[in-house]
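Hi V.,

You were right to ask for the full record rather than a summary. Here it is.
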Amino acid sequence: MSIRVSFLQIIFSFNLFLSGCASLPREPVPITQINNTEVIGIPNARSWAGEVTEHFQQDMINSAEQERHHGFSHDEQGAPKYAVLSLSGGSSDGAFGAGFLNGWTRAGTRPEFKIVSGISTGALIAPFAFLGADYDEALKIVFTTVSTENILEPLFTREAVATTLPLKQLLKQYVTDDMIRQVANVHDQGRRLYIGTANLDAQRPVVWNMGLIAKSNHPSAPQLFRDVMLASASIPVAFPPVYIKVEVNGEEYDEMHVDGGTFAQVFFHGGALDLKAAARVTGFDIKKKPMKDLYIIRNGQLKPEPEQVERKLPKIASRAIESMIKANVRGDLYRMYVFSLYQNVNYHYVDIPDDYESQAKEAFDQEEMNRLFQLGYELGQQKDPWEKVPPGLEKYLEE
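Predicted structure:
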């Protein structure tokens, strides 16, 4: 039985135990105003996923002008060499993605990314990946020197089975104010960093423009940057939600945000942009020049893992949840593939090989994470480790 399944069993049992307990106090946004909120002091910092918004669209158009003034990579014909990196969830399996990025740098083939997006553990990797090879060593340290006690502390409350105080401290240690300023600098060069969370009040996924937050002069910006990362990695019930302060008509409220994996395990730009429309405005002809490459690093495996499930409610529930997560991942990958065809983008996908067998003894097993890092590191150095279609589709295309 996997560590993740055991953890889910604890969560499910705990949820049943506390289902009748009184709720904790908060100041939620009135339902009638839930679409009208702004983060205090940092407007236009986010968008609903699946909804093209004017401020996100204009920001992408602005990025084209920014990249012209900052030496963004172009091909021999003068067209921008766009590459997008999408980093999935996967908990401690994020060590694989961290290793892959390090190996990719070592191979000398890692591109400069126009967009980097991350969700859950991918959100913890994304800022390092966005800033490039100079942050590879820090990324390695984060994913190879930590253990469970550096991420969570068991503490049963009315909203979670553990506290993320250790993870908060880890984020403060490595996602420094200086690092956030570097994100702002790269944003001004025309590149974009997006992280996904789930707004439980609205029951909708949210895409955050992290570079816009980073370049804000508001004193709360660095903490908001780290809070969004924390929220994206906060598995509901396992970890407490992150409450983000917002305002409507001068009144302050809080939004409840949790793991973006609640809605999607990996995303491109979350449907918050219309890249074709933005390209037309900037004079980039997608029909003649592909928007280059979408790279997806899946921190996990999709292979079925047969197991004799005991006739116990928590174990049945946990097994069902794991199965749904894998099914959702497949759906995300196929959705992104269709989107890449529509946007004329080359699709590249990699995950933990099917023949890899986990030896983890705890949720964040340092020895296991080092094994995963090394696996990713070696794979990242290969000439072409990428699948060009989602898992399972290749056999139909061959036919």
